Amino acid sequence: MEIFIAQIINGISLGSIYVLLVTGFNLLLLVAMIIHFSFPIVVVLSMYVSWIVLGLTGNNIFLGVIAGIVSAILINIITAPMFQHIMKKRGDVDINSTMVLSMGIGMIITDFLSHSVNSGFPIAFPDNLTGRNLGAFFQIGMISISRGDMISLSMGIVFVLGLFWILYKTRAGRAFRAIAEDPAGAKLVGIPILKTGLQSYAMTGVLGGVSAVSIAILLGSASPGLGDQLGHKVLAVSIIAGLGNLKGGLIIGILLGILEALVQGYWSGTWSNSIAFVVMLLAILIKPKGIFGIKL
Amino acid sequence: MSLPLYYFLAITAVYILMTWALYLPYRVAHLHFIVVANMAISGYFGGYAAINWNWPFLLILAVGLILGAVVAFIVSIAIGDAPTFAVVIVGFTFIYITKTVIENWEALGSTMGMFGIPMVNHVLLVAYLFVLVTGFFIYRFDNSRLGRAASAIFVNRELATSFGVNTKHLGMFLQTWAGAIGGATGVLYAFIMNSLFPDFFTFHIIGITMTMLFLGGYTTMWGPLLAAPVLWGLPLLLPQEVASWKMIIYGVLLIVILLVRPEGAITRQVAARVRSIVLRR
After folding, report:
1. For the whole model, what pTM was predicted?
2. What is the span of the domain harbouring residue A280?
3. Which of B86, B245, B250 comes nearest A284 by C-beta?
4. Looking at chain A, which terminus has fewer C-beta neighbours within 10 angstroms, N or C?
5. What is the CATH number of the domain that holds A274?
């Protein structure tokens, strides 16, 4: 029972990161109308930028975190014109091409990280960022939650709640959702499509940066291949929930995190990852249009 | 024939076949990466059958082709007319699962790879005969009613359905055909290289074949035929320091072609112009 509770907490922590990534992915899909498959690869690049800045500044956490967030925003804004260029007119969007373009961006980033940073070896984040040197946050029997896990979980919950608050309770959020529901109608009532689209790139950049810091704290390390794995899971969560379904992504993201944590808790070894993949595969094969329905 | 030339020609054949395996389902707008998993499954099966059961090469090739088709057919029942992104993610998931199984199966060499696949005479000849036969059938398909139906689905799925095109059956047919090509290519690759490594069947090969498809042109079968030898051969001619960055070069080429010439180098218009010039002569 203790293992079960500990893994549920770990799963929620992992799931909150998936939720941040899936929400950013869905936001770009709904507002900018692109399938940014490599969004998690951009997040991993931000982790590397953060790691480099930490190294250069003698592990200055504040600067490391800021560098991670700013780099994610910049990469998203810089790549935005490329996506805009290959999009046809609004409402008749070539989504397949945006996905292939995103994969091309992913290939470049992944290979660049494999060649240039730390000679392609995985990077490890310092203890003062991950909180490993501070010991357990609390321990009851076998249940041990590190401070790093707690910080990552708290960040995930705060930012997920904040994001959903923005989306559902603010004027900007209403503009995002209006464009997602009916682009022509949104334009008619005076919502600036281009400006709101760019805001969505910036906002997902912030989400990406926060996710990068959160993943760095939770995992304590990163490798060039991490982005591909996360990209695959994020797209899978989005499809299982229903592409563009924000609330569905929230539920499925948390559930996938819990599933993965439980499998790792009870089934050690390299097989554990494939269990989650088999469940994902079955879910997609049974309901290719998602459990909660596509919102496009 | 020198060894470098032999490997250039042999791997070019492998890439032409794999890019055609991607090209066929993309005729109905499906990026069907499961062909990489088909390649791995049939390749490892072929290697195992040759080493442990002493099966002859041609029998293994036939069984590998059928194995690829059967796996692809079973999956296509679920995703024959699924949206593109669902097809993409099923492909990726299948690749991950296949790779995990191979890496944990000692009989297949685990993470170390499978060695000792016997050398076979005339494997290069068989590979190019297979390219010819596959190319012939793709050409016939492209110029048939089914090929035109596939083009209609690519442009507008709903409209194609309203004209009576069975999108699911055509999607299943193309996915199964692509799976068969992927399976046979896996066997050919195993006998060309005489060894297999699970790390080969990952994003690496997806990135290369996807670039070949989009750079060469996804609207005709001639694009992959041109792009495969050029893109595979180019890094071999470059200095080692530059060639080691080939995935970045491929990524940049992929992005540039999507931005500048979205349909790739050889479009239907280009193919028609070349055909008319050739016929005039």
Report:
1. 0.87
2. 2-286
3. B86
4. N
5. 1.10.3470
- Is A227 inside any structural domain? yes
A118-132, B16-30, B195-209: which is most confident: B16-30
Reported as a single tens digit per residue, the pLDDT across B196-231 is 999 888 888 998 999 999 999 999 999 999 999 999
CB A17 within 8 A of CB A152: yes
Kindly state whether residue A294 falls inside one of the protein's structural domains: no
B-contacting residues of A 16-55, CB under 8 Å? Answer: 35, 37
Average of per-residue pLDDT across B47-61: 95
pLDDT higher than 80, residue A140: no
For the segment A261-278, what is each residue's pLDDT rounded down to a tens digit? 888 888 766 676 777 778
- Round the average pLDDT of chain B to a whole number and report it: 92
Structural domain includes residue A295: no
Q: How far apart are CA B150 and CA B109, in angstroms?
A: 41
Per-position DSSP letters for B164-231, written without gaps between them: T--HHHHHHHHHHHHHHHHHHHHHHHHHHHSEE-GGGTTHHHHHHHHHHHHHH-SSSTHHHHHHHHHH
**Residue A97 with chain B: CB contacts under 8 Å:** 258, 262
The label of the residue with tokens 């218009």 reads B269
Count of domains for chain A: 1
